[in-house]
Amino acid sequence: MKVLLHMCCGPCAIAPVGLLREEGFEVEGFFYNPNIHPYSEYIKRYEAVLAASERLDLNTIYHRYDFEHFLKVVSCVEDRVRQHSLCWRIRLEETARAARAHGAGAFTTTLLSSPYQDVLEITRLGREIAAAEGLEFVMRDFRKGFAQSHKLSREWELYHQNYCGCVYSEKEAIEQRAKKGLTS
Ligand code: SF4
Predict the structure, then answer these.
(1) Whether residue 63 has pLDDT greater than 70
(2) Which of 5, 50, 159, 182 is least enclosed by beta carbons within 10 angstroms?
(3) Within the chain, what is the greatest distance between any pair of CA atoms?
(4) How many Å lie between the centroid of ligand 1 and the Cα of residue 168?
(5) 157 dihedral zone (left: phi>0; alpha: psi -120 to 50; beta)
(6) How many CB atoms are located within 10 Å of the residue 97 CB?
(7) CA atoms within a 13 Å half-sphere pointing along the CA-CB vector of 179
(8) 155-166 residue pLDDT tens
(9) What pTM was computed for the model?
């Protein structure tokens, strides 16, 4: 079966691609992350996905950067937990639409590989969206490959981000580094 893999960044994609291929899936990548701020950061992550896709011999679809849509949906919400959920929903819904458009019967996301994301909520959303679209959401524990992925991505000299993606997370990361007396 063909599975469309939503890719949040290059480093996080390495283990999921390997694990899905081991299971016999035909994997195609999908880069859609309108949450990333500022645009210069988006370009860095986009270029890391390009480089990772080349290393992995992965065909990847690059979807539009509709930052305005992210702002419209998320910026009017104050609760951070709700913001995260909406942010994941936007990306998973677009991935599901693209999966249908490109003849994939299933989709999943590299967000499941991150120890910093709420895997249970992402899985709940993925399954809900999959059911509505008549697709399968492939839930796997990609976290077990996280350390190895990041080791390999350093060898490949891929860009590693130091905050989740949106302007809120950028601000929090800068504040936390300042508290620790770090300047960058
Ligand atoms: S912190 Fe991360 S998951 Fe939460 S809204 Fe920002 S980019 Fe999305």
Answers:
(1) yes
(2) 182
(3) 50
(4) 8
(5) left
(6) 17
(7) 6
(8) 999 999 999 999
(9) 0.96
- DSSP-assigned letters across all residues of the chain: -EEEEE-S-SGGGHHHHHHHHHTT-EEEEEE--TT--SHHHHHHHHHHHHHHHHHHT--EEE----HHHHHHHHTT---HHHHHHHHHHHHHHHHHHHHHHTT-SEEEEGGGG-TTS-HHHHHHHHHHHHHHHT-EE----GGGGHHHHHHHHHHTT----SS-SSHHHHHHHHHHHHHTT---
Cα(152) to centroid(ligand 1), Å: 25
Q: Is the peptide bond before 38 cis (omega within 30 degrees of 0)?
A: yes
Q: Is the CB of 30 under 6 A from ligand 1?
A: no
* Residue 60 backbone phi and psi in degrees, to 5: -125, 135
**How many other C-beta atoms can be found within 10 angstroms of the C-beta atom of residue 81?**
10
pLDDT in tens, 5-22: 999 999 999 999 999 999
Closest Cα to atom 2 of ligand 1: 164
Cβ(35) to ligand 1 under 6 A?
A: yes
